Amino acid sequence: MTSAQIEIQLIACIVAIACAIPGTFLVLRKMAMISDAISHSILPGIVIGFFLTEDLNSPWLILLAALSGIITVVMVEYIQKTGLVKEDTAIGLVFPALFSIGVILIAKNAGDVHLDVDAVLLGELAFAPFDRLLIGGTDVGPKSLWVIGTILLLTLGLLIAFFKELKISTFDKQLAATLGFSPVLMHYGLMSIASVTTVGAFDAVGAILVVALMIAPPAMAYLLIKDLKKMLVLACIFGVIAALAGYWMAHWLDASIAGSITTVLGMLFLAVYLFAPNSGLISVLHRQKRQKIEVHLLTFLLHLQNHREKSERHINHLNEHINWHKVRATSVVNLALKNNMITIDDHIISLTEKGKIFTTEAINYIITNKSAAIEDMKERFFLFRG
Amino acid sequence: MKEKIAIKVDDLTVAYNFKPVLWDIDLSVPEGVLMAIVGPNGAGKSTLIKAMLDIIKPIAGSVEIFGKPYKKQYKEVAYVPQKGSVDWDFPTTALDVVMMGTYGSLGWIKRPGRQQKKEALEALEKVGMLEFRSRQISQLSGGQQQRIFLARALVQKASIYIMDEPFQGVDATTEKAIINILKELRKEGKTVVVVHHDLQTVPEYFDWVTFLNVKKIATGSVKDIFNDDNLTKTYGINYKVSVLQ
Ligand SMILES: Nc1ncnc2c1ncn2[C@@H]1O[C@H](COP(=O)(O)OP(=O)(O)OP(=O)(O)O)[C@@H](O)[C@H]1O
Ligand SMILES: [Mg+2]
């Protein structure tokens, strides 16, 4: 690897981590959309800042652009407070307006400078190593590495100092307020960090990737883990994985790095969404199918208990008698057999002792309306699940 | 007898989007009572306690906690919100939620330590939830979640406890457990204010009551004012207390 390659990957990883931290809280606050709004509406701030400073990495530009991010949040909240429209509508009203002001400003004034709409949306990570920071004539590394590195340190410092306050104001705003932690202050603090991070990252990776890096890694972590600290760490890890994998994908395909990272994020998210152990789609479908079979098993066992006469217990009769068509009769019978709840003797099915106890207990639970307890009972009786 | 006033509400008017939902409320809650706030849905009960807790800013009037504004007294007050007011899918455990009750005494930046954990465990024990301490909160039943909220209020070691419908959706056992803890708090001289919906149990559980329906209808001891007249004024239907009791 050349040093430029290493620098690009380093910048991508740091951007990913710097985005995942505020992103985790945005996801938990169900405010994912606001990051989209911020990332677009900082454009007028960037353009005006650029006219004033002529330097895309100037701290003044970053502050000015972050300010337009905050203005977006304030405007969204103001419109929402009138009670006339919902939050997502308010977001949809505000950010296209600000974004288009930015686009017009660029088109009118900055036609010949390094600032165009493509660069804003997609960034160009590949060029990041060419813009060096010189201190007293010595080259200390790419400028954007310093910018985003500083922002990451700031974010980490604030996260460590105010973790408890962030947690409580995210989980229970009202409790936070009654305990003397101003949720409004935490809210705007978080929004400021999200804005500053977006501005700092946009030059390197563009507005679209910033949003993807803020939302997708925390959303994946949220599906996998139920502990806030671990969720933060996992979100950072997902971000870094996507950044590195995306970089090499772009390298091999000779494609845009930001675009490739976004693609990897999308694929990763799809995988987690499908395969997450408890909340993933496959696991949910599996659980539903299992419950369906088990409900049929229970009706089957109840029928056996209610009808002692042989004709009612003949295997062919059961097929007609109970409404099987939704599940395969054999899978129900097999499940009962595997769990030692029935025996089959010359096509006649009988409940075993265990089957009888299970059925009686289950009826009890159903009658007393403690259906939740049935799951617990299944754990005790079943050797195999449906 | 001159008793100390725990909460004093003066000429309080609260509006959402300029539409008043509480009109000119005057109310004094004496220290050491177990008070129910009753009234129909939408009467402004939740709004009243949010205004007491400075969560909502009134358009007129004021609230004093032991003679001072809430901001100076927040350590004296513990709040149990309506269960639905938080996201129970939040990635955290029962113990962690209870520990949040200690954050107020910690103040900014300082992190909870061993002492806070010990207090939280004691509170969990008190509400009978110790064995669920490391459960993810979404995996608790509604009644268990309510107990967690109560434990969180207990660790605040406040003088005033304010609760919004703590009995909502809990079974008879949990309701008895909660009311016993509330009565114990009263015995320790604490003031407890509860938004309550089950009129039948008011005389059994509480010694003080406020009738509310946008305006304050009446406030006083259950013995004196829990009667047909006030119930009818509040709910607008003919109530017979004799039947209720
Ligand atoms: N955030 C809000 N914005 C606008 N109106 C609100 C808001 N919260 C409550 N209201 C209105 O204020 C009135 C009082 O509401 P509040 O929640 O205080 O009633 P409540 O007595 O607690 O009712 P419940 O018994 O249903 O809990 C209602 O008419 C309600 O629609
Ligand atoms: Mg209410």
UniProtKB/TrEMBL annotation, chain A:
Signal peptide interval: none
Pfam families: ABC-3
Record keywords: Cell membrane, Membrane, Transmembrane, Transmembrane helix, Transport
Domain of life according to the entry: Bacteria
UniProt-listed GO biological process terms: response to zinc ion; transmembrane transport
PANTHER family (UniProt xref): ABC-TRANSPORTER METAL-BINDING PROTEIN, METAL TRANSPORT SYSTEM MEMBRANE PROTEIN CT_070-RELATED
Protein name: Manganese/zinc/iron transport system permease protein
Organism this protein belongs to: Arenibacter nanhaiticus
UniProtKB/TrEMBL annotation, chain B:
SUPFAM superfamilies the UniProt entry points to: P-loop containing nucleoside triphosphate hydrolases
Annotated GO MF terms: ATP binding; ATP hydrolysis activity
Origin: domain of life: Bacteria
Family annotation (SMART domains): AAA (SM00382)
UniProt entry keywords in alphabetical sequence: ATP-binding, Nucleotide-binding, Transport
Domain ABC transporter, first and last residues per copy: 7-239
Gene3D superfamilies per the UniProt record, alphabetical: P-loop containing nucleotide triphosphate hydrolases
Classification via InterPro entries: AAA+_ATPase (IPR003593), ABC_transporter-like_ATP-bd (IPR003439), ABC_transporter-like_CS (IPR017871), Metal_Ion_Import_ABC (IPR050153), P-loop_NTPase (IPR027417)
Pfam families: ABC_tran
Homology family: Belongs to the ABC transporter superfamily.
Identification of the protein by name: Manganese/zinc/iron transport system ATP-binding protein
